[in-house]
Amino acid sequence: MIKKASDKSDKVGAVLVVGAGVGGMQASLDLAESGYKVYLVEKGPSIGGVMAQLDKTFPTNDCAMCTLAPRMVDCGGHLNIEKLTYSEIESIEGRAGNFKVSIRKKARSVDPDKCTGCGECVTQCLVKNIVYLEPPDVPKVELEADEQTKIDEIISRYEGGRESLVPILQAITNEFNWLPQKLLMRVSEVKEIPIEHILRIATFYKAFSLEPRGEHIVTVCMGTACHVKGAPRILERFERELGVKTGQTTSDMKFTLEAVRCIGCCGLSPVITIGEDLYGKLTPAEAAKILDKYRD
Amino acid sequence: MKSYRTHIMLCAGTGCVSNGSFKVKDALEREIQKHGLQDEVGVVMTGCNGFCAQGPVAVIKPDEIFYQFLSVDDIPHLVEEHFLKGRPVEKLMYIPPSEKAPVPKMGDIGFFGKQRLIALRNRGMIDPEVIDEYIARGGYSALVKALTKMKPRQVIEEIKQSGLRGRGGAGFPTGRKWELVAAAKGDKKYLVCNADEGDPGAFMDRSIIESDPHSILEGMVIGARATGASHGYVYIRHEYPLAHKRLIKAIAQAREYGLLGKDILGEGLDFDISIQQGAGAFVCGEETSLIASLQGDAPEPRVRPPFPAEHGVWGAPTNINNVETWANVPEIINKGAKWFAGIGTETSKGTKVFSVVGKVENTGLVEVPMGITLKEIVFDIGGGIPKGKKFKAVQTGGPSGGCIPASLLDLPIDYEKLAEVGSIMGSGGLIVMDEDTCMVDVARYFLEFLKDESCGKCTACREGIDVMHGILERICQGNGKEGDIEMLQELSEAVKDSSLCALGGTAPNPVLSTIQYFRDEYESHIKEKKCPAGVCKALITYTIDPEACKGCRLCAKNCPQDAITGEAKEPHIIDQDKCIKCGVCFDACKFDAVLVK
Amino acid sequence: MSKIKPQDLEKIRVRMARTMSLRDGDAQAKITVHMGTCGIAAGARKIMSALLAIVEEKDTKDIVVTTSGCAGLCSREPMMTVELKGQAPVKYIELDEEKTKKIFSDHVLSGKVVKEYALAIGSERVG
């Protein structure tokens, strides 16, 4: 934390802590306890930060307030900590030991020394500060006619809301080999699922690709049985043969090379699949030869 | 069905299909027709037989003759000799590795002889796409019993008494789970069959669904009777297209017969099942993320409690069991809790299906009573290690499990015993490793897998595994340093303690168990910069033994780097500066003259 | 197929029983027709067809019909061996369809060995 005596320069005085979340408060407390004057700057009207809004903390499931409240009280009453709430930093000049900071303190229109925090003013005020969000302008998705019919047919196969999303993405992958963005936009439009959620799901699962894939998808099984029987060398061999890295597609769009975690054919390890065809008990040289069948 | 005198039970599991069992089927039918035997000999396509490495395999009934490696070219001879003249064909039979004489009968083959089939009771005996065959072998009789003769309470009691524990890995008592769901309040309740078999090296769930889909459906309907659930989901991996297809068919047949849907068997029970396919995420095997995935949410685990038994699919009480667990249920109801509890050990009852794979002679799927020793599985059933190599370890439990060394081969297998030695039962993958397997590389491999599959929710799991993987990667590269092992152990504790779900909670197991039993291998990587097993690329060199080299030029022709020089019929030399250690020369050499050190 | 009731399951089981007993391999009776080249030449195929027809007609369960190679006694073909569960096998020689029917009804179904067609009771010793 703080290096004291060994540092020769005569740095003295106070410390500025920016942000009065749990981290800022703890830092301020530690500094204040070791004798420094602390200026604690906070943008919001109160100290406490995000943790005050949480119920439980991860991963221990401790009550957030129980951790936070003692620190808030300590911070609030500590004589060495000067709290500058509802304030923002405008500029910082100087160097270690000699900073000049200008802070803009916003008008609070309440005398903090007198306020007890009863909240009565909030309920009494006639002007309610409620924020209404305009729905964002989502441009209508423009699709080719045949794409439109195909995607709408796929979507119509599945009822329901979010729970139909994975099946729909699977159906699109089966049809197009990948997930073109504009089709996803269409799914979002019809099913009223935000595109952000669709993309989150699409990137979570291994089976989906947001980039076009080749005509033949070459997957090398990297299950444990295949691994001990030499699958990594087969994968390497394919990388050399096809001139791409795992996960990439050859420039002629013929092959995509992928590694899969386990096809469940461990009895035949090492195993690869090309499209629907499965080949087992391979050596790297044999595996390379199989590619020729698909090269035409 | 016609009354054939012989049935050819040809395996149509994924493994055999990929080796051409449908072509063999066409050839068989063609030849049978040619000899006019079509009214006497029938070909039945069964589910996975389990002996996948020998595929395509067939069992001839009633003679019980076992044939392996069938190819289209063998068929004319086979049909003429066996089915016309009644002379079994020796050259297509199984020959044990250490012997010369073939073993004709299936029951005499060590691989099958020690097995005891409960979950796999119908494998190879029925055509999985014909519901009548399942019924003929006693299928759905347990359901009748549960519906007409037993109260829901009694069904649960029976399962509790049997001592059945979750076969997905954790081993939670199934009856207890059902009881919780039955007692939970809610208008709607759900059942889930977890067929998202993510552990690399395990494929029993695929096999059960492929060979006997109705056993799962029956188990689930019995579960519905016991818990009061009205709908079931089967969550199956998308990597299993054949199993998916068979399941769809089985559900359609069961609906047609009124074994699913409204008023099942006229006994007033309403229950239906739908299938959801996964999309390739290991973490979806965890129950809370599976539920999230079913609902179309991002499949991240959540804090438990509340457990799914109170708050599961759509917030309703939900019971999740693994495929193998469901498949056991009808047999327990039929034969009684006492019978089931009579098999196995003190704490683990019944049988367990293992996939015995890796460096072992007979790879495949075996179902054995709990309490069998590792030695029996690896040597008696598995037939030992190929090519006379030395046994090194068995890895159980997938990425959450550990490696068990040769000194513990006499260990009787059950949930507790495996945990004691630092591994877990897991879904039943049993990967055999020989002297050519590098244990540091195995640990690195599992962490690489988990690094990819960590959902990223918990910092310790996301970052911790990544850091641990980095250290192992460095050790394998030959850049390990003193203190790395201790650092790995320390990080392991941190990752274990601060992850929400079992993925992170068990992730360090492969590392800890390999350090515990194979510390010397870590040390030789770190201190001597040597990989004793000859696996880690940065630490090995390929050389050519001048004595053994015949100068055939085969390796030189195949070398992608042109690193091998030498005249024909003279010993060749590998230029170590050019060598990228791809191992092509090693594979190409017919005289074992390429050495790895 | 309409929705079924518990008793219908039993009907399906009965209907499928013969197919299934074949696979279980614990049939009550096993009839082996010797079908080496000599047997086929002497008409073993007809015997086989006749047997299968009888099995079909009588709708018997637990009976397995199978083939084996030449029994070595080529001059007395066609031959078959009848083996009831727990009893010694009996070899019958010089068969025709009529004899087959009689053997089936007397020996296989009723357990009475048809002595006039029988060659011997028991099998050769192996080894």
How would you sum up this structure, described in words?
- Chain A has 296 residues and is an alpha/beta fold.
- Chain A has three domains: 14-106, FAD/NAD(P)-binding domain; 148-204, no CATH class; 216-293, Glutaredoxin, CATH 3.40.30.10.
- In chain A, helix 1 (22-33) packs across helix 2 (64-77), helix 4 crosses helix 6 and helix 9 packs across helix 10 (284-293).
- Mean pLDDT of chain A is 87; it is low at 1-6.
- Chain A has helices at residues 22-33, 64-77, 120-124, 145-157, 165-176, 181-191, 195-204, 224-228, 231-242, 284-293, and strands at residues 14-18, 37-41, 81-84, 87-95, 98-105, 216-221, 255-260, 272-274, 277-279.
- In chain A, strand 1 (14-18), helix 1 (22-33) and strand 2 (37-41) form a beta-alpha-beta unit.
- The longest helix of chain B has 19 residues, at 459-477.
- Chain B folds into five domains: 6-108, Glutaredoxin (3-Layer(aba) Sandwich); 131-341, Rossmann fold, CATH 3.40.50.11540; 351-434, Ubiquitin-like (UB roll) (Roll), CATH 3.10.20.600; 439-526, NADH-ubiquinone oxidoreductase 51kDa subunit, iron-sulphur binding domain (de novo design (two linked rop proteins), Up-down Bundle); 541-596, Alpha-Beta Plaits (2-Layer Sandwich).
- With 597 residues, chain B is of the alpha/beta class.
- Chain C has a five-stranded mixed sheet with strand order 2-1-3-4-5.
- Chain C is of the alpha+beta class and 127 residues long.
- Chain C has one domain: Glutaredoxin.
- Chain C has four helices and five strands; from the N terminus they run H-E-H-H-E-E-E-H-E.
- Chain C is elongated and about 55 Å long.
- Classes of the chains: A alpha/beta (296), B alpha/beta (597), C alpha+beta (127).
- Chains A and B meet through helix 5, helix 7, helix 8, helix 9 and strand 9 of A and helix 1, strand 10, strand 14, helix 17 and helix 23 of B.
Greatest interface and its residue counts? A-B, 52 and 69 residues
Give start-end ranges of low-pLDDT stretches of chain C. Answer: none
Global morphology of chain C: elongated
> What is the count of helical runs of chain C?
4
Give the biggest sheet of chain C. Answer: 5 strands, mixed
Strands ordered across the widest β-sheet of chain C: 2-1-3-4-5
Strand content of chain C: 15-25%
The largest sheet of chain B is: 5 strands, mixed
